[in-house]
Structures are given as C-alpha cells and as structure tokens.
Design brief:
By secondary structure, this protein is an alpha/beta fold. The protein contains ten helices and 45 strands. Strand 41 and strand 42 form a beta hairpin. Helix 4 packs antiparallel against helix 5 and helix 9 packs across helix 10.
Length: 606
Amino acid sequence: MSTAPAPAPILPPWQRCGHGADPATDLIGCPDTLVPSHTACLAHLNDTDRDAYLTGLTPGADIDHCGTPFTELLLQALLQALDDPITGRPHLGTALFIGAQFSGIAWFNEAQFSGKARFDRAHFSDATFAKAQFSGDATFDEVQFSGEADFVEARFSRGALFGNAKFSREAWFNAAQFSGATGFDGVQFSGSALFDRAQFSGNARFGEAQFSGDAEFNGSRFAVTSQFGPVACAGAVDVSGAVFEVPVTLEIAAREVRCERTRWESTATLRLRYATVDLSHAVLSCPVAVTTHPAPFTATTGAMLQESLLTGHTYRVRVVSVRGVDAAHLVLMDTDLSDCLFSGAFHLDQFRLEGRCTFAPAPTGLHRRHLIWPYRWTRRRTLAEEHHWRAQTAGQPALAPGQTPSPRDWRTGPHHPDPDLTPDPEDVATLYRQLRKAFEDGKNEPGASDFYYGEMEMRRHDRTDTPPGERALLRGYWLLSGYGLRASRALGWLVAAVAATIVLMMGLGLPDSSPQQVATGAVPAGGGKVTLVVDKEDPRLTLPVADRFTVDRFDKSMQVVLNSVAFRTSGQDLTTWGTYTEMVSRFTEPALLALAVLAMRSRIKR
C-alpha cells in the first residue's frame, strides 16, 4: 500500500535563516528572520558579522528579529547598540520581535520605542507559526511606546513588569498569558488598552494605572488577583465575561464599568467612582457588593489617585442593569438606581440596599389631562420599568443620545418591536412586590411603602390579569387615600365629608325646634283607671332657607357630625333627611379617619 505524501512544511512569512536545515530530517532549519545583508539570523551570525551589524545600528533604527531566540547577553548587546548618548536609554524605531524567544531576563527598562513594537505571534496561511515567549522575567519598567504596542498571545512564563510605562497609542495584550506576577503599576495608557481573553495566573497589579481610552478585559481570567486598582479611566473598564476566582476588591474611577456575564467565583467588592455600571447576567456565586467610594482612592504608596481624566462628572455611581442576576448575592450601597433595569433578575425579594440608594422620582410639575383638568403626579420612588411603560403608553419619543430627560416627563427606555419583550404592568407589579418584600425584611417599612404604591398602580392599570371589578375597587382606594399611603388625601376627603355633612345638617337635618311631648287619654264615665298615651311629634323643618344657616344651627350640626366620626350618636333630634345623613356619615367619616391613620402609620413604622 502506498503512503500519503507528507504535508508540506509551513514556512514563516519572512526570509528565514535556514541554519541546520537537513533534507532528510529538517527541511526548514532555523525559521528566524535574516539579518539585513547577511545570510543568517542574529543568533546564528558569527561573532565578526554580529559585531559589524551591531556597530552599524544607530539610536532610533528599525529592527526586525522575528522568531529570533534571544539569550540575556544577546538582548543586552542589541539594546546597548541602540543606546541614545543624550538620554542614555535604548532608542528603537519600529521593533519587530514577532514570535521571538527570550531566555533569561528580558531587560527592556527605560527603552523608547518610537515606532511600532510587536511582540505578538506570527499568523499566516490560517495558522499560527510562533508566539513571543518570555521564559524568564520580562521587565519593561518606564518604557515609552510611542507607536502601537502589540503583545497579542505573548507568553510570560515568569514575571512581567511594566511599572510606570507609557503607551501613547493602542496597547494589545489580547490572549496573552501571564504565568507569574504581573505589574502595571503607574502605567499610562493614552489609547485603548486591550486585555481580552488574557490569562493572569499570578497576581496582577494595576495600582495607579491611568487609562485615557477604554480598558477592555473581556473574557480574561484572574486566578489569584485579590486587588485590582485603584485605576482611573476616562472611558470604560470592561470586565464582561471575565472570571475572578478568589476574593477580590476592585477600585475603579471610570465613566463606565461593564460587568456583563462576569463570573465571580468568590466574594467581591467593587468600590467605584463616577461610573455607570452594567451588571447584566453577571454570575454571583458569593456575595458581591457595589458601592460608591466617597473620596479619591489612595494607593499602597499613600499617594492619592489622580482623577483629572474625570473632571466635570459627579462621583456618584449609577447602576443601570441587574437583569439576569441572582440578587440574593448582590449588595448595592450609596448608588443611583434611577435608570436601573430589574426585569429578568431573580431573588429580588432577597436584594439588599444599604446606605443612600436613590430611585427615579415621578414626574414633577402641573400637568393637564385632555388639556383641561390639572393634576400632579404623586411624589414617590419609581422603577425604570414603570417609566418606560408609561412613556411608551403615552407615545413619548425616545431621547436623542446625550439628551437629558426632563423631570416633568416619564423617562423613555428601550422600545422593543416585539410586545413580549416589553415589560407590561403585571411584570412591573411583580418587580415592585419583590422589592417591597426586600425592604420589609430589612425593617424599612417607610421605604417599602413607595413600592407598595407602585405595585397597586400597576395592578390598577393591568387590563389583562386584573378583573374590572378589582380595578374599580383599586381606583376608589387610590382616589380616597392613595392606597392607604397618603394621609393628606384621606384627611382632605374627611374634611370635605365633614363640611358637606354639616351643610346638609344645617339645611335639611335639624328641625325648627325640639318637638314637645304630648300626653293624651280618656277618663271613663263611671270612673276607674285612666290610661294616658305620651307621644312625640315628628321633627319638622319649616324655616326659610335663609334662617337655616345660623351660628346656633352650625354648632348643633358640628356636634352631630363630630360624634358621627367617633361612631357615637349625639342624641339630637333630626329630621328624616338628617337621620339618613347621620347614618351615612357614621360609616364614611370613620373609614376616612382610619385610612388617614393607616397612612401616617406606614410612614413612621420601623
């Protein structure tokens, strides 16, 4: 049987050295790039040619040593040849170390790269040929990268130190592997810093790092990192999909912090400033706390973190989504929840809010229904989902990007073309009910009252699951006392009822005068027992209308009405109209008084 021919070897995309090639065993030989004007790579040049090449280098020269294996001595010789006599620091132009292998310590401290610096892997023919490998410690302390810095898929087998380095443009560390301790303390990233899918097996330090652009850690894994930051970022710090395996504290001052589908396998504390936080679908295996840090962060050196990148913004943290989160493990402290979406979160009844957490208020100002009837919205804390539903129901247009919502309107939100994706009143009522229970379990009855009000409001507007009779009952409950939570409304109705009852009593209920008792009987002709019948005339009202509204009749009417409020009878003689009026007032006015007392109790109960 004939055997299939061996596949053709994959050749690197540069002119290769070929040292050690053997037609029988190794068709390629050394794959490293050739030194210009020579027939071998830097590692395989003879001493005379190598010295001649190094002597011909000048500070700022472009170099290309892709795939070259560097010993510690060879790297030092190369950098010494590029020393700038003015600054005393190595000065490289465009530096290509794609797929290079560094054994021993790779010492690049204080070097300056004025062009691109590439320490990434080589890709060609849909295959990966080589990845930059640092077998020993890699030190880039105080290095200046004026061009793009590319460390994609680089392998750091031991420590990787970039302390106080400056990246003037984008820095790429995607899929890099850091096996030892990693230090980015005091680093300044002027462009975006990309660490997507990076693996930090050792402790990763980012103390006092400054990001002028975004800092992306999508899908990264932090195995033993217990402290991230403090860092300052003018853009977004994105740890979406990242995994934190041990207890960790994150100290971040940034405009935005994205934690979508972030996995916290142990406890975590997020101390944030200025940030808008998105926790959508984050996986919380243990308690995670998000808190607003009231003062600038202090580094381990005792220095205060510079926040000049974030001037002009309030330090208060805004949480905009906890959708899909197990809220039983989530604690929010001193955060703004005005735009927070709770739909899809579960165990909201075990949600914990500490400190001063604020929700969106209802619209302010005077409004007109059908351009005629004036009304005001009741002041209360509301959920973003209710704002979005009411705004969509009212047909409010969506806000333009960057536009601030008016405090007189409901806040618009995401409008879904599929009605099934839009929270309806039943969904919002469920959210209010669960959050109300969380407040009640936390012994915060006054705080829970607004969520009870919101729940009743959504039930009143739910035409699908709330029967018409129940909605009518809820409407009356709302109209009379604001669901037993608005004492002023119940007292207002009570005063109005008392005033109306007094007017009815003065006009129709009190007779002209108290009727006299009359005794009647007959004396038998032959004498004997006399039987008398004592009767009382029916109260009559014959006074002219103008004479019915006097001070004396007002006083009597006031006594009748006030006794009615306390379920007592005044003993006052009344006309038929007055009797029925008193019966009605003895039912309605005590009920209104009870609603007022209930509302006051809900505001002061602890």
